Amino acid sequence: MSLTLRTISREQHLAYIQSLPAASHMQVPAWADVKKEWRSESLGWFDATGQLVGVGLVLYRQLPKIKRYLAYLPEGPVINWYSPHLEDWLRPMLAHLKQQGAFSVKMGPPVIIRRWDAAAIKAGIQNPDVKRLRDIEATFIEPRAFEVADRLRRMGWQQGEDGGAGFGDVQPRYVFQVPLENRSLEDVHKGFNQLWRRNIKKAEKAGVEVVQGQYEHLAEWQRLYEITAERDHFRPRPLSYFQRMWQALNTEDPNRMRLYFAIHEGEAVAAATMLIVGGHVWYSYGASANHKREVRPSNAMQWRMLRDAYALGATVYDLRGISDSLDENDHLFGLIQFKVGTGGQAAEYLGEWDFPLNKLLHKALDIYMSRR
C-alpha cells in the first residue's frame, strides 16, 4: 500500500471533512483557531493515484525554553483505522512530526471498542457488586478495535493513562450517545426513561421555552456557566474562549456551533452549546442556574436539541464525556444517571495513545504533568 503524506491547505482539509458522513469537531481546520495557544498544521495522506484519502489536524505545543513540541491530534487523525496496513498510515506521520521538532506525539483514535445500552447500565447501577462500567458485560464489542490496539502496541505506541497527560486537553474515553439513525422521533422519545418523560412534560406545563441564542448572547451563557462552575467545583473557561469558538467554527461553517437557552418567566435558567459536523451532533457544554430546577429546564433543552439534531439528519446525538464509575457515592455519578435517562448508549473509545520520539523529553513531560 503506497501512501504519501504532506502538509495540505485548510481548503483541502475542509473539503475532505465535508465529503465524509462525520468526523470529530476537533479535526476540522477551524479547531486550530479555537486552540490559538497551539501552533497548527493540516496533514493529508495521498494514495498512489494522488487522491486525498485521509487528513489530520495537528496541534503543536512548545516546551518551555526549548524549540521542541508535543504534537497532538485530538480525536484524530481521520484515516482508515481498520486498515491491515495501519503502519503505512502512521509511520510517515511520525517521520514528518519528528522533522517538525516534535519530541512526543499524542493522538486519539476515533475508534469505539465497546457499547453498553441503557438497560445494561441500569441493571449495573442496581447491582451492589458493580462499581464500574467495565464490570458490566458490554452490549456490543468491536473486535476490530482490539486489532487496532495490538497494531499500535507493536509499533511502539503507548496507551495513555485515563485522565493523564495532555496539558488539560485529554479527551474523555467514555461518552454517552443517543443513536438517531433508522429511528423515528417517537422512538427516541419512547426510549427516554419515565423520569425524563415526566420532566419534559413538567417543563412544558411550567411554560419553559427553549430558544436559540446568537453571538451577542454569549455573555448570558457565561453568567450561567460560571454559576455552574462554582457549584460543581471546576475552573471555567473565559468568555473569550466561547467567543473565539463561535467566530472560528461558524466562519468555517455557519451551522457548526449553536447556542440554546431554556427560558422561564423571562429568565434564562439553563444553557448549552451544540456542535455539528456532518451527521454527528454534540452537546458540548452545559450550564444552569441554582434556582428553578424544579421546572426541569435541562430536560426541556436536551429534548429540543435532540429534535433539532434529528431535523438536521444527524445519525448520533453525542452527550460527550461520562465517568466509568457507577458508584452512587462518586461525585460524577449524577452525570451518567442524567444521561442514561435518554435511553442511549455508553461508548468506550480506544483512548489516547503516545509515541515518545525523544524518550528523555517525553519522560520529563510526564514528570512535569504529574506534579501539576
From TrEMBL:
Q: Which GO terms describe its molecular function?
A: aminoacyltransferase activity
Note whether Acyltransferase occurs among the keywords: yes
Keywords of the record, alphabetical order, are: Acyltransferase, Cell shape, Cell wall biogenesis/degradation, Peptidoglycan synthesis, Transferase
Q: Which GO terms describe its biological process?
A: cell wall organization; peptidoglycan biosynthetic process; regulation of cell shape
Q: Where is the signal peptide?
A: none
A Pfam family of the record is FemAB
Top-level taxon? Bacteria
Q: Which residues cross the membrane?
A: none
* Family designation: Belongs to the FemABX family.
* Cited PANTHER family: LIPID II:GLYCINE GLYCYLTRANSFERASE
Provide the protein name: Methicillin resistance protein
Q: Which organism is it from?
A: Streptomyces sparsogenes DSM 40356
